Amino acid sequence: MKADEPDAAGGPAPGAGGSDEPMADNASDTVVASLLSNHPEAVFYAIGADGIIVPMPESLRLSGQVVLENRSALDMVVPSDRAVVIDAWERVRKTGLASAQVRLLADPEHRAALHFIDATAHHGVYLGVFTWMEGGEEASGARLAQQAPPRTPRFARARKNELAVVLGIDEAFTQILGWAPGEIVGRRTLEIVHPEDQALAVDNWMDMLAGRGPGRRVRLRHQHRDGTWIWIEITNHNLLEEPEQQCVMAEMVDISEEMAAHEALRAREQLLNRLAETIPMGLLQVDSDARVVYTNDRLYSIVGVGRSDTVEEQLSTVVEEDRELVTDAFAGVLSNGIDTDIEVRIKPCGEGDKELRYCALNLRALTNESGGVSGAIVCVADVTEAARTREELRVRADYDEVTGCHNRPSTMAQLEMAVSSADSKRRPAVIFVDLDRFKDVNDAYGHAAGDEFLRVVGERLHSCVRSGDVVGRIGGDEFLVICPRISTADEAMGTARRLAESLSHPIRLPKGSVPSRASIGVAWSPRHVAGAETLVAQADAAMYRSKHLGSGEPALFDPSRSSAEDIGTWNWPAPPDQRG
User: Fold this and answer.
1) Element housing 457 (H / E)
2) The pLDDT value given to residue 353
3) pLDDT tens digit string along 515-568?
4) How do residues 145-160 score in pLDDT, each as one tens digit?
5) With contact defined as beta carbons under 8 Å apart, do 536 and 415 qualify?
6) Residue 6's CB: how many other CB atoms inside 10 A?
7) CB-based burial label for 184 (10 Å; 0-12, 13-18, 19+)
């Protein structure tokens, strides 16, 4: 029967279609009867409710089918199909029937159908059944059973005297440890216990002899006949005073797979711990209550705080202004599982460190088996250098390297913002500053001196404006001052006069003192807010008038003297000073 083969009644096999509805008891009997009737070559095996292989119940009367003993479907299929088997087993526990297509180790070229049936109602077990797909009939049940490797038992017994000399063993002892009775009887079991475990074995033995009945369980490594070591869990029963026994009965359980899993887990934990201490970033794990579960040493050197109990304490060096950002990020990841990346500033924590440091925090939610948030893991990286580089690039993009003033694109962007945010009472004023005879400074003293001259001009301009004003260099010797919120023309002219006064004093250079003066134009309107380009053109036109007058006094743009189309092309009489 294939995975979707109809049952004996002609309908689909109950539960095979993926429904979560439980299958009726009589339906399972129908499926089993169909398999027995239609598939004499099938391979059956019985499974307990705990998933352990059990003997086939006598109540199930097979008609020549092969019974697989001590092996499960996981042992028979290719490794890549084991997940399919596990999924089918989980489904049969819910629905009563599950089918899947798998490839067998005995014949990986062809697929077989694996069926799980809940037969607990009438037979007390679950049934696993292999049937063959087209082209795979040659992989008969007998061949499959023959190729299945024997399963080594996990439980064994040995009889010993009071000196731990072996008196007898069962067949399982030989299968687990490889020693035949003639090779082990008469020897003390301590001879095959790992040297590192012998002290524990002696202590456990003496403790057992002090009382009657079972002693404490103990886990010891025993040497296999081939020289390898097998983990055995032993419970020694003191029956020395029992007339029919007069021995110590050792019940032995092979726990090699369990210990191998523990060792693999330990090795993985060690690897993760070593990685955590090696990677160049801090690690912080917290539970769902924001309590610290794990940190690595690197975290301490980054945030300057040793291991703490809570996130608030662990990140106490975050500057006050950024703490709300941290609080919101942890609330989001722990309450809603929202992964978050933030950047915060850390107070100086080293003796020689006086500047704020920048840290990137990458928060990732951790979930439990049900999908609920169980905590979070946080990677903390010191990104100070990257932040400084980013700031340097921003400064280079927005500021003039020589004077420290805004460059032309940045200045115009600031003016656009001022225009867009203006209201009916306060409007932006633009002050155009052009240095007189700056070309003479370059020609007489060189470009280095000219740059120093411009730097001093920038400083003087900054010293004369308010904190919200913008000073920009828009050309070789041209500066633009933006005053975003000006109420009157007199207020704008007052700022311009302070600029003119500051720039009227000579500038001292390494090669001597150099005269300084500027032509300054102001644009501001009490009636409406002009566009950014128009304001600059108006201030430029007013600056030409200031230059024409030659007195060093700022000039206010007068809209009555020209239309907007004429701005920038006024025909003033030739000024006595040419623009530098």
Assistant:
1) helix 447-464
2) 63
3) 999 999 999 987 777 789 999 999 999 999 999 988 889 999 987 665 444 444
4) 555 555 668 899 999 9
5) yes
6) 13
7) buried
Give the residues across from 579 on adjacent strands.
436
- State the pTM of this model: 0.46
- The string of pLDDT tens digits covering residues 323-343 is 999 999 999 999 999 999 999
Name residue 45's amino acid.
Y
168 vs 55, higher pLDDT: 168
Domains for the chain: give ranges and CATH numbers. Answer: 25-147 (3.30.450.20), 155-259 (3.30.450.20), 279-387 (3.30.450.20), 400-566 (3.30.70.270)
What does the mean pLDDT of the chain come to? 85
| Separation between Cα atoms, residue 90 and residue 96, nearest integer Å | 10
Nearest to 178 by CA among 223, 232, 220, 219: 223
* Residue bearing the bigger pLDDT, 228 or 108: 228
Closest CA to 42 of 127, 122, 110: 127
* Residue in the block written with tokens 């309450």: 335
Tokens 């398999």: give the residue. Answer: 35
Structural tokens at position 199:
């002290």
Numbers of helices and strands, H then E, in the chain:
18, 24
Question: Is-contact 168 92, C-beta < 8 A?
Answer: no
Place of tokens 């693999």: 264
Helices (H), 223-319: 256-278, 297-303, 311-314
Is the pLDDT at 573 greater than 70, yes or no?
no
Closest CA to 200 of 247, 234, 153, 244: 234
When computed from its CA atoms, the radius of gyration of the chain, rounded to whole angstroms, is 45
Rounded CA gap, 170 and 545, in Å? 117
Long-range contacts from 334-341, C-beta under 8 angstroms, 24+ separation? 334/286, 334/288, 334/290, 334/365, 334/373, 334/375, 334/376, 335/373, 336/373, 337/365, 337/367, 337/373, 338/365, 339/363, 339/364, 339/365
Give, as one character, the DSSP assignment of residue 311: H
pLDDT digits (tens, 9 = 90+) for 259-299: 887 887 788 778 777 777 778 889 999 999 999 999 998 89
pLDDT per residue as tens digits for the range 114-124: 999 999 988 99
Instruction: Provide the terminal-to-terminal Cα distance of the chain, rounded to the nearest Å.
Output: 99
As a dihedral over the C-alpha atoms of residue 471, residue 485, residue 530, residue 459, rounded to 10 degrees, the angle is -10
Q: At what angle do helices 532-549 and 408-420 cross, to 10 degrees?
A: 110
Work out whether the CA dihedral 72, 75, 77, 81 comes out positive or negative: positive
- β-strand pairing of 373-382 with 282-287: antiparallel
Residue 277 is predicted with a pLDDT of 77
Q: By the 8 A CB rule, do 319 and 347 touch? A: yes
CA dihedral 466, 469, 474, 476 (to 10 degrees): 10
